[in-house]
Amino acid sequence: MYTICTESRTANSESVDLSEKLTKSQEIILKKENLTNAMVLEDGLVYIGEMENDEPQGFGILIYPNGSVLEGNWIKGKANGMCKLQYSQDEYYSGNILNNRFQGYGEYVNHNSSVYKGQWENNEKHGYGEEYFKNGSIYCGNFNRGMREGEGVYLSSNGSKYEGQFKYNKMEGDGKMFWGDGSTYKGQFQNNDINGYGVYTYPDGSYYEGYFRNGKRNGIGTLIRYDGYQVYGEWEDDKFYKN
């Protein structure tokens, strides 16, 4: 009933002694609040706050035996509205919750890995969102059931930029890639690599138009050098094979 999940994590309880799990800050909460308004729920959860008909109603704080703290508004025993779920000092969710589930706009912060700001549905990233990774990479675009899927832009920490379609967290479909040395590619992607038909432009202005496999020229294609000289024919493993 009181379980709230995110990022394959569960802030639900374990069958352990509550006093052994509460952090110092949570113990302060217990001392400051009126304990006549506190109640122990299933699985050792502790609720402190406003109640009605012996269930959480209004503003309140839910403390999990594993140390997580959920603070926000409650309606008929369930978290609803703007809330904050603090997993630890370095990890939390702040945003809208609907009937104990992340729903609508919210921010998930894990200082050890990434920050996500965007839409949620049923505890998963869903809709438009922006994800900032600790290594400096950034993704801005669509999510579907927790995965990058649809149109999006990925800025890599190495300076490259991809604009296009994603599927199952990978570059998949039509897209454009820009590299720091001035090279560009426009065409088809599959499994996070250049696969299919496209145009690759080199820093000196030369370009290849044709087929690729796993990032290399493979199949029929034409190389047009910066001086206008053309090489047309079949390519294999990034080398000209025959005309």
From TrEMBL:
Repeat recorded as keyword: yes
Domain of life: Eukaryota
The keyword Repeat is assigned to this record: yes
Keywords associated with the record: Repeat
A GO cellular-component term linked to this record: cytosol
Signal peptide feature range: none
InterPro entries: MORN
Name of the molecule in the record: MORN repeat protein
